[in-house]
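<purpose> Linking amino acid order to shape
<body> The protein record starts here
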Amino acid sequence: MKNILFFLIIIFCTSCNQNVEEKKVSFDYPVAPSEPISETYFGTTILDDYRNIENLDDSLVLKWFKDEEKFANDILKKISGREELVKKMIGYDRRKSYRVTQINVTEKDEYFFLKQEANEDVAHLYYRKNFNSEDELLYDPKNFKPELGNTYVINYVKPSWDGSYVVVAMTHSGAEISEIIIIDMKTRKPLLEVIDHCWPSDGGGVSWLPDNSGFMYLHYPEIDHTSDRFLKDMKSVLYKIGDDPKELNVLLGREAQPELGLSPQDFPIASIQSKNDKYMFGYIGGATAYYDCYYAEVKDVLNGKIQWKELYKKEDKIKGGTFRGDNFIFMSAINAPNFRILKTSIVDADFDNPEVLVEEKEDEVLRTFGFASDGMYFTTTKNGVEGKLYHQNKSKKTEISLPGASGRVNMDFKGANFPDIWVSSMGWKNDFIRYKYDSDKKEFKKENLTPETNYPEFNDFVVKEVLVSGHDGEEIPLSIIHKKDIELNGNNPVLFLGYGSYGVSYRPFFSTSRLTWVEEGGIFCIVHVRGGGEKGDKWYQSGKKTTKPNTWKDLISCTEYMIEEGYTSKDKTVIHGGSAGGILIGRAMTERPDLFAVAIPEVGMMNPLRNEVTPNGPNNTKEFGVSTNEVECKALIEMDSYLHIEKGTKYPATLITTGMNDPRVIAWQPGKFAAKLQASNSSEKPIVFRVDYESGHGINDTKSKGFEQLADVYSFAFWQVGHPKYSLKK
């Protein structure tokens, strides 16, 4: 899901008048081929004007996508100020000499991590013998299949427990399906075998065997993201070092364990959390917050006689669990919307009456927990934006004072038998800082691998956390970032960023690229709408399936709040969200087209009623519903932005995007929305459909592409709200 200049009112008024004249320019959109289909769902007749766009093998459809790509580029590349915005983002990025991500620390204190120099477009794999040793370059992704000419990105790294091998997964062109190589640390070279048909960055990763002889990963039989068989019948397999990766040793899957009753779209993920664990997990994952789970004994993996037993069901609302001997310790939202930490025995499991280790907190949501040798640590968050850290040993619970205010708190452990715990924090204005916590001295010591950098341009930025009354009286958390000297004159461009699905929270993050919106004269708002997890399970359930309208109504309420408080006005409001956040943006703009100046759904789910027929659609029915159930079908129709576009309505200026390599939201979803909106809009505001053939869901793009894409978003929005620096060059 990617620095205010204050302008005098007279300048804004002048630019607004100029912008009105400029918007009278007519736009000659590419004409989308249309073959309407009429269908009836439980008494409701739906006319689908652009059903044919779903056929991405149709030459006319493909030509239209190409024409839209050219049309969008001809506009976006001509917006004045865009190139300067890209340069500014690059300048901020290069102020930090390098960045480190995906830090893995072994039991021998060895470090494996990705490092990206300021002038590099992709990260490289590095190694340190210990924290204080020098960096050693292990692998440059340009050395992987150089004859193909692709720019490969490392998207996943996992060393073995003893650091003798390290798994490295790579992809290119924004795709996410990866290829795995295994680096032998004795030789510092990759083994000959390459494992394909995998997606470890989003498929549960890899789990090394306790003896470091091999690992488990999720195998995808079909890797063509446009195929009907994509994301179907996945299976967890065991790979032993030196074996032929084409010979699959299946541990968990629909065909291997028919007695489990798995569906084709389920993600059966086998996972070992610690090399000392007696038991392993078999998650039945998918695109939703909760899932079924099984367990087996780790020793059975080695002797080839694995037997899976039920551990819990998705109805138990369990999130996060770990084995401690014969005990299972877990978080659950049952009878505790803000979650509790509980314990039960594997030998005689009792999920109805588990032992309570940490009670639910009234105004804080439990997020994560883990174990070090001195007890259990856990984190909480308030309204998704205020992180806290606690330690509990036996029955004694203590809040640990953090080195500074933190919007988010993350923890990393070496293992339950070690005292080592690393705590990282981040906020809207403060960058990621990594500390090592000494529990004996109750002290934090910085152990950053990334150098700290100052950004004085952001010093006078103000962060406000407010609660906005929603349409039904619920209080919606709203994060507001602006310059301290801002005037409440209703003349400030405001960008609202939101998501609201899967129980995922928009936690505070620091991004110099994002903050350029503020530096350029705007206000940046993050709307913590229902469907996310900012206020616990209740908040999540209140924006899911039949309650989904709360998601976009929360965005509408927060927009109205910013207008009523004098921050902005209707002709200065910009709404922005991606992926499942496309529902949020699309339905807000179709329900209240008068309220927004600009709408930007990126790689968005815009046609949920038809999502089931997409490769990733069946997996998402757990979150959004199925069209064969009357109640859920009506909910899908209600949340479907494409179906709510009305002919002759004046819609906001809209920038719609898609990546043709997107494995999550297939390109025709935003495509159909763009075609219908261009044909139906009666306002003179532009409807631009940016098609990218070298990108996917925006997750594995190169750094430079990320800057270009965000510059498109910001420059388009600033142009449409009348910012004097941004206009369409002739």
Remarks:
- The first helix runs from residue 9 to 22.
- The chain has a mean pLDDT of 94.
